[in-house]
Task: inverse folding
């Protein structure tokens, strides 16, 4: 007996139906927005991720050396791989480059409900668009995906890291430390960093600002606290609200939240996080924002914005809201009865399948009543019984598995009888 590695999951048929549904809705919507699919390797050079996130990320990674002595890591997210791909190969494409990908990512975290070591993300990026329309477009896709899955309780929190940056009169490294302490709500660290920088006076306005969350009126309140800093960033968020309205995003779907902070240097402007209130501690289902990674990876300066949604958590949220429709059942289960009916039964099931129906056939040679039990257990809509006498007459018995009603139909009418009973 072997145990699954800690923090990983097996997904059975019921789970996979839901997971594919969520993934497919995202893919359909992304394609309808003009995003194209890409795929990158499951492992990358370790340096790709340390360049993006600093050496502090290493304990969170699955790292290994290959037989050639190369330092590699399983991907913990998609943005760095996609930007590497962009800088190396996609740069020549007409801009903006709009791409999406889905797949598994790996982080060495303490597992708990909704937090795994292997999990799945839905990812979209826009590279080389103008910031405002591109930010609005990715937000519309992220929110639209949640809606397409059937989630009602969506809450997006939108901030602008540029506002806090313009309030912090420090170099990038010190800004990053202060922003990191704000991100983690680690006020002890905040105080000590500001003391070190000789600007303890900034602590109170920063703490007050990041506590603000709500409609556009909090932008005025924040602007007041920050005393004129970040005016461009506030204007940007107001313009963004106008575009979101044009996309049909309801005001109740999002809040402005000055507390959405991402400390890493390459986050430059709009940042957002999405919560599903039903999920308890691990309630964040997605996040994203505008960033500048291409330069860090050796490319030219170009605007980039994107997001990652956590597939596992989207499924949990949809389950919590009862958003899933019942799975599509098998249309027919074909039961050959007696010697010499199997080949004809295979022809019948093949015809049904070729007509786009979902059809299965007995593979064990069970008797009719055991086979009906089985048809019931797998949730088939109809059982098609093929006995020798019926076959001679070119007919089959069709049993409605819900009502139990049975009738004989000509084989030529079978597809129709199952398609529209
Ligand atoms: P991040 O790349 O950290 O912004 O994560 C994007 C999304 O991935 C989060 O909002 C979560 O929904 C999901 N996620 C992050 N870490 C985990 C994890 N360990 N297990 C499951 N889902 C995760």
Result:
């Amino acid at each position: 007996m072997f145990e699954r590695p800690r923090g990983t999951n097996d997904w059975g048929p019921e789970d996979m139906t839901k997971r594919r549904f969520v993934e497919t809705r995202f893919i359909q919507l992304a394609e309808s927005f003009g995003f194209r699919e890409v795929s990158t390797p499951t492992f990358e050079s370790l340096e790709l991720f340390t360049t993006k996130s600093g050496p502090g990320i290493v304990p969170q990674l699955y790292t290994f050396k290959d037989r050639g002595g190369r330092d590699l890591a399983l991907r913990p997210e998609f943005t760095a791989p996609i930007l590497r791909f962009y800088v190396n190969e996609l740069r020549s494409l007409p801009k903006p480059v709009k791409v999406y990908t889905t797949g598994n990512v790996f982080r060495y975290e303490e597992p708990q409900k909704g937090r795994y070591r292997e999990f799945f993300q839905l990812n979209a990026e826009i590279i080389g668009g103008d910031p405002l329309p591109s930010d609005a477009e990715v937000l519309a896709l992220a929110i639209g995906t949640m809606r397409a899955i059937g989630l009602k309780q969506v809450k997006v929190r939108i901030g602008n890291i540029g506002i806090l940056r313009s309030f912090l009169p420090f170099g990038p490294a010190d800004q990053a430390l202060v922003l990191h302490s704000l991100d983690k709500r680690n006020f002890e660290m905040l105080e000590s960093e500001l003391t070190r920088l000789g600007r303890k006076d900034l602590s109170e306005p920063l703490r007050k600002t990041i506590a603000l969350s709500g409609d556009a009126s909090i932008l005025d309140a924040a602007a007041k606290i920050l005393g004129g800093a970040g005016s461009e960033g506030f204007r940007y968020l107001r313009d963004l609200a106008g575009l979101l309205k044009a996309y049909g995003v309801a005001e109740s779907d999002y809040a402005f939240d000055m507390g959405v902070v991402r400390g890493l240097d390459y986050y430059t402007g709009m940042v957002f996080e999405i919560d599903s209130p039903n999920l308890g501690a691990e309630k964040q289902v997605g996040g994203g924002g505008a960033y500048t990674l291409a330069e860090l990876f050796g490319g030219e300066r170009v605007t980039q914005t994107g997001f990652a949604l956590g597939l596992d958590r989207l499924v949990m949220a949809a389950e919590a809201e009862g958003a899933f429709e019942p799975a599509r059942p098998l249309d027919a289960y074909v039961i050959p009865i007696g010697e010499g009916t199997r080949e004809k039964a295979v022809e019948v099931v093949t015809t049904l399948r070729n007509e786009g129906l979902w059809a299965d056939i007995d593979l064990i040679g069970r008797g009719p009543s055991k086979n009906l039990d089985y048809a019931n257990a797998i949730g088939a809509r109809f059982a098609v019984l093929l006995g020798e006498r019926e076959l001679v007459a070119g007919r089959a018995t069709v049993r409605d598995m819900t009502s139990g009603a049975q009738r004989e139909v000509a084989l030529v009418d079978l597809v129709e009888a199952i398609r529209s009973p």
Summary: The mean pLDDT is 95. The longest helix spans residues 13-32. The pocket of adenosine monophosphate is lined by residues 77, 107, 109, 114-116, 119, 121, 284-287, 308, 310, 312-313 (CB under 6 Å). The chain has 15 helices and 17 strands.
